[in-house]
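Step 1: inspect the first sequence and its tokens.
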Amino acid sequence: MIEKVLNYVKDNEASYVERLKELLRIPSISTDKTCKDDIQRAAQWVADMMNGCGIDAEILPTAGWPCVVGDSGPVDGGGPTVLIYGHYDVQPVGDVSLWNADAFEPVEVDGKIVARGAADDKGQVMTHLFAAEAWMKTVGKLPVRFKFMIEGEEEVGSGNLRPLIEKYKDRLACDYVALSDTCKFGPEAPAITYGTKGLIYKEIILTGPRHDLHSGSFGGTIPNPGNVMCAIINSLKDADNRVTIPGYYDDVQPLSAQEKDAIASMRFDEKAYLEMLGSPALDGEAGFSTLERRWVRPTLDVNGLFGGFMAPGASTIIPAKMGAKVSMRIVPNQYPDKISAAFDEAVRAAAPAGVRVEITEHARCAAYVCPLDHPGLVAARAAVEAGFGKAPVMIREGGSLPILPMFKEMLGADTIMMGYCLPNCNAHGPNEFFHKSDLWGGIRTAVHFANGLGRRG
């Protein structure tokens, strides 16, 4: 039966590219309120595509942009239910002069589809929709129940997703969540991401005198908020790049021998990595490899420093106010509430009495990790190998996906992350692209994923 589906996919490869281009031509920029009609149009395109192949789909309103939900229906003999998550909204274009063509007029260059949203996430989410369509067109049903939740607010923080899930919790009930919004490890290295870091984002404001002061007349007599900010930031890490906040590492679990060996065995070219980033040298927590630092070790980074005199030329002042933005990426088993409070205590402890300290939190979410022996993950590994002809490497991600712990909390479901774009696909940047071969490989993978779950029952 699956051969019939795969033959259908093969016969429709060119059609899939053209239909993806239709969706890519819709400028569904969720940050731009003037794109309201285009966002509605993109949601309708997705819903029509599902309904057109027999998947019951509906556009659900939210307090912001709408969400498309679909259901392939129950299957004989039961089996797990999989909720496919994705998003149809895209990032703004940015500097149009950096694009080689109109960002919303997709072009093919060297086997790549170049357009805004090609990789993030229209191209990747369509792998699942095209695979489901192939099953419906050839067999008349899927071997396992697939539900779909394709939202329009991922690029603006998914602020209305939690209320949507709360309202439609029974309708969205599932055993697993699956998404394709991550990357391969390299051009010839398909990957499954099984963990992401959490995030705590803080803003520190230090206030000293009522207004800026002459540094000659008053320097050396009161705390300078600029000097104090530098001292506070410096106090947060030691010479080995370890975070000095008391209790920061208390709950960090060491890597298992299996994971450590797997990471060490990956072919990672540090020289090429530096060339890609344009950095002259590597740095990070002592005693860990670059991949370990990226994926499995907690970090703390200054994201911005501001205040005082910043215009061209010179102005000899003691600034009245200084600010800093600091983010912490935390790992599984670290508790966001605990780390957030510890950060505040450490900053206040490092500040002298002569400055007033204000700390604002902009973001907080937990890390997420899926057990390596999870049955959905086992099925995904077999599906990726069948779809791409090569076993995937198991990787973690240094970024954060707040939706993953939310799915676990609200639906009780772990998330399987199968990503098909390249790490350098220029997501959020100019000339974003998705290889046609990875589009087709992703469709084949999604076909095998449904088949494998159906066979496992």
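Step 2: inspect the second sequence and its tokens, then contrast the two.
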Amino acid sequence: MKSIKIVRPEKLLKGTIQLPSSKSISNRMLIMQALSGAKFEIINLSKSTDTLILQKLLNKIHASSGKQDAVELDCSDAGTDLRFLTALLAVKPGRWVLTGTDRMRQRPVGELVEDLKLLGASIEYLGNVGFPPLLIKGRNLKSDTLNVNAGVSSQFVSALLMIGPYLSEGLTLNLRGDVVSEPYIDMTVALMKECGIKARKWKHKISVEPGVYSASEFTVESDWSAASFWYQAAALSDKTDLHLPGLEEKSLQGDSVVASAFSVFGVVSEFRKEKAGSRKSKVPVPGSRFPVPESPSALHLSRHPSRLEGFFYDFTRHPDLALPMIAACAALGIRGRFEGLKSLVIKESDRVRSLTTELLKLGCKLTVTTGDFPVIEILPSKLFAKPEVIIDTYRDHRIAMTFAMLALKTGSIRIADPDVVSKSYPGFWDELEIAGFQIK
């Protein structure tokens, strides 16, 4: 398998970094656009593999309208795509086979399927019960009030919400259990409102009135989840001078909490006006219906010394921040305890196992509690990289990006299957070189 070697910058970590646009916002907007049947403009759409796959499948769905035979739709390893399309196809006339990679067939979808069946959906399992592939026969669904288990995946909740306006009397969801990734549910509700739908969320209840999605145009923000890896880099560097344009200070994205989360490591976040002559951002200024300001701002990251000795974090609301934060803690030799990791087990890889296995290769001292409520504890130690050690990325984009940043402490690191970052951040390796890293 192909691998690359990453060598840390010789001087300070510095540069203007081009972040990808938000995959989460892009994919939600594409689903709402498809449900509306209107081709309103979505500016700065993500170029991630997941979004490209979703666009391709939505085009195939549109072109297959009226076909009698079942149409196969391969989501590859795009979990968001499969979950959102499961709900969309349930209300889309036709016969559809929804499938994906071997790993996708191990990722549960049963909770979503059972909730859709309560609304009258026709969905059959073509393999193991509770998992893809699925045979879906699209039909009109009935309105109802559902008690939804929100402790498995926020994407199940978002998938249901987005078809809610197309049920005759709307939809009401009561969220049960410890809600995983709740900010992503809040994002879905906010985007639905932006597109003209009346939706209300209070405590753990969400109501959606019937309606039709409509918008003139929408500009997608840059991705705060991708920015988390640059926060990790800032935490691990001696000196940092990074500019990240395209992010919103008051963001729809829950992962914007990364700014406060990494402050304990000494990372300082400041929104500044972009300087004349700086590297031009390819990203339009976010904000769907607002004029573009003359001097767009960029997030500036710097670092002050930190004497943090111990750290605890519960990632239930922000699981995508777990890898860079836990790895930063390990690289800095800080004792840490991390909970709220349940949803990481069903991601692109089992991230609890993937992260800890690869950290052990670098000499990290840690303990892992498995089961229904996984816990990772990091013990003070020093990471080192042996020339023969290659970090396995498990076909998981976030594993690759997390471990690449550890070169700042180990001096260099070898990463297998580097192309996997295209799933969410196609330009990641180019941006590393702009920041001063060497890639061999």
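Step 3: confirm your contrast with the notes below.
Confidence is low (pLDDT under 50) at residues 280-295. The chain has 13 helices and 22 strands.
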